[in-house]
Amino acid sequence: MKNKFSAQFYPLLLRTPLSNLFIDKKVTNKIINNFNDPWNGDLDTGYKILKGYMTFFGETVHFKESIWSKNEATKIWNDELHSFGWVKDLRLVGSNQARIFLRKAIKEWLDKHKNWTKVEWRSNILGRRICNLLGNFSFFCSSADESFKEIFLRSISKQSAHLINYKMRDIEGFEKIFAIKTIILTSLSFETLQRYFHYGESMLINEISNQINADGSHFLKSPGIHFEFLKNLI
What we know:
- By secondary structure, the protein is mainly α.
- It has helices spanning about 1-10, 45-50, 75-85, 85-95, 95-110, 125-135, 135-140, 145-165, 175-190, 195-210, 225-230, and strands at about 55, 60.
- The protein has a two-stranded antiparallel ribbon.
- The protein starts with a helix and ends with a helix.
């Protein structure tokens, strides 16, 4: 009964400090399993990022001080920025400069978006962000101090707890795969979330049934989306 009550009223409290009461017990700075993202980025893109240029979907933004400075880019560009898929490009560069740049960018994001916001914490963006950051954790945290690691892991576990509590109310269809993957990944990464593994597993089975046709193709009939769906199953 308590869990049903929490699930019902949690979305109504998101703009208040009371929302933290529902997720604080799940927040931790301890990671029990560390997974590496098997997909590589693009080397040239990584070097361009270090030079101050972020390009998504053919749209380029030049930043001077911070990648989080206000920009005039499209919504889809900013969604991609907050999803952190570009960390793979910096990982491929592999330099200490890339690590420092990435840690600085992450720290600035955590300072700016440490609490729920409607866009940046939307379930599909949040799911991609958590998977991209946890999947590259070994790269950018290998030379980080303990303070950064603690702040980072507490934020990731908090975002994960929110994702679980929010129950994907803000997304539908194909975008659900990113949130479901995150629930499974974080249930294996954080002890405080372990009990949600079977919840994520059952949602995954249900979503495969809903999205994959009898002939094995994705219902949207897009090769790109079909490939992306399969990538998230690995």
